[in-house]
User: Fold this.
Amino acid sequence: MAQSDTVDRILNAAEELFADRGFSETSLRMITSKAKVNLAAVNYHFGSKNALIHAVFARFLTPFSATLEKAFDELESKCGDKPATLDQTLSALTESAIRMPQRNEKGISIFMRLLGLAYTQSQGHLRKFLEQQYGKTFNRFMRLLKEATPQLSAVDRYWRIQFMLGATAFTMSSSDALRGILENKLGVETTVQEIAARLVPFLAAGMQAKDAMLVSTAGDNTSVA
Amino acid sequence: MAQSDTVDRILNAAEELFADRGFSETSLRMITSKAKVNLAAVNYHFGSKNALIHAVFARFLTPFSATLEKAFDELESKCGDKPATLDQTLSALTESAIRMPQRNEKGISIFMRLLGLAYTQSQGHLRKFLEQQYGKTFNRFMRLLKEATPQLSAVDRYWRIQFMLGATAFTMSSSDALRGILENKLGVETTVQEIAARLVPFLAAGMQAKDAMLVSTAGDNTSVA
DNA sequence: TTGCCTCTCAAACGTATGTTTCAAACAGGC
DNA sequence: GCCTGTTTGAAACATACGTTTGAGAGGCAA
Assistant:
């Protein structure tokens, strides 16, 4: 009983503190005092701070990538040999995220912020870990995106995927702060589910925008459907 | 001669290292050794590490916000009492950024990445500094965006602006790396100007996307006007 | 020259970090 | 009971950090 209890308490505390303050700004002493365990417990159970970071991600990402693979399986079998649409592909992603069993009400938002930090904050070891652990699923998602946007040139698709990733990672990485601002300014509360529901149509519209490469400053319209 | 030389070398080194590694991950010793100046020079000339961070931002943002204010002046006088379009507003921004005199070829991309870090990394002091220093210009930009998208609710507009900022900051921040990948994979060269030209229609399409809020996963919807 | 002010330099300071150590407490099988 | 392997605890370790100190170098006016 002692073992798993300590490990979980460390993971819970670390997850929350990392999401709040980033990785380098969170010390092991903050984590262990929040978790009410001894300082040495982290190195005893995980080996190092970096390994703890990996464990925090693995605890969420391993079941999530399994769920996502299943969702992709269903999507592909449902579509037969037709390619899935862009909306279907993006929705498979967001719905898998939302349906994950959550430890508490903040579960998703904490983890979205962590993912954003992982992408933004240049932690070499983390990126390597995520890539070799979950790269396969990520590449499958990219393939689906490609099949869903056959009208785009490879170059256009490449850049627009970067735009999508940017909007997502950036928003999620600061979503707590943004939500706070929104509540103060407009008096509205927003859940992560709602943000995702707003993000998907934004991204889908952007991905399918008509090219306006030749329109420069002086000119006028960019036709958008 | 000694003075300005040291100050500039510190600023140049700090700018590059911050963009590469983030603020907390960059030590004063890294900065001073890259700049080939004494460690104490930072505290002598700037007072503290935080003040150095502010100075790095101010060196770029102060002339940029002046350029931007001028661009907005021209835009508003050109449009008379009609509101400027979304494309015009976004283009005023990107063109002002592109036209800024740059210290070197990496100028823009480095600074875009810094802006992204400032937003993502929870450095309270930085956010306060930027807000009180350049909040006026930022609010003017927000007002233009508001007038350019009267069809959006305040909440929708708020989130979509966050998505735009994310896509922009994220893409620009790593545009050097992304450009390299693109050249290797597809054999195409891309300039920052071309990326901006691709980004603007993507953003404009996203901003003007039809809402799909009622498409929800399981049961409940999230009512937001 | 002398005096003054600005700037540089090497060294040190105090603090916080990740990690290690080793003894004590605890569990379960014999 | 005793023994064995696992887990906790308080303390210390080595290192890196931002910052401060005080001596001295250099330029410039009187």
The two ends of chain A are 58 Å apart (CA to CA). Residues 2-3, 6, 37-41, 44-45 of chain A lie near DNA strand D (CB under 10 Å from a C1').
